[in-house]
Design goal:
The protein is about 75% helix and about 0% strand. It has about 180 residues and is an all-alpha fold. α2 packs antiparallel against α4.
Length: about 180
């Protein structure tokens, strides 16, 4: 009978252990679950930190790319502006040569005025005494014909479209 009692008590103890494990109250089971939970929380914390580091890196790269795009755009804009101004000044010079009366003196005076306009009013162009009268409106300022103005505007728009399409093709955005 001793063996039957021992088997019955062993069986009842195993049944209690099974119930404790199923209910989640078994000590060994709870200790292992706590250990697994701590490992899981550590992995989640490490993953979040990795994500935050990656986001910071991506944001820095994006900011640098946007700055590069703006700088590149500004450089191209200035380059095109200078090229267009040079072309317009050349057209103006040719028109002045065509309209200039036979003396080279009138052409030289007009070139000084053009240079003064380019450099601004504060830049000294000569040491002669200042005039009391305003200079007359020069006819060469209105010498561009409508089709020449439209051609220049067309060139400007075309260059802007080229810059915008190259930025779109490279995946860059002009908006910050």
């Amino acid at each position: 009978m001793d063996t039957d009692d021992t088997e019955t008590s062993s069986l009842s103890e195993l049944t209690k252990l099974i119930e404790a494990v199923e209910e989640g109250t078994h000590e060994t089971y709870r200790a292992r679950v706590e250990q697994l939970e701590m490992q899981m929380e550590e992995k989640i914390r490490a993953a979040r930190q990795y994500r935050d580091n990656q986001l910071g890196t991506v944001e820095s790269l994006c900011d640098a790319e946007q700055k590069h795009s703006r700088d590149e755009f500004e450089a191209e804009r200035k380059k095109f502006q200078q090229k267009l101004l040079q072309s317009l000044y050349e057209q103006q010079r040719r028109l002045m040569e065509e309209r200039a009366p036979g003396s080279g003196k009138a052409l030289e005076m007009n070139q000084r005025k053009i240079r003064r306009q380019r450099l601004g009013p504060s830049f000294p162009t000569s040491t002669t005494a200042t005039r009391s009268k305003k200079p007359p409106v020069l006819p060469f300022m209105f010498a561009l014909k409508d089709h020449e103005i439209h051609d220049d505007l067309y060139l400007i728009r075309k260059e802007i479209d080229v810059v915008n399409s190259s930025n779109r093709a490279s995946g860059r955005s002009m908006r910050g």
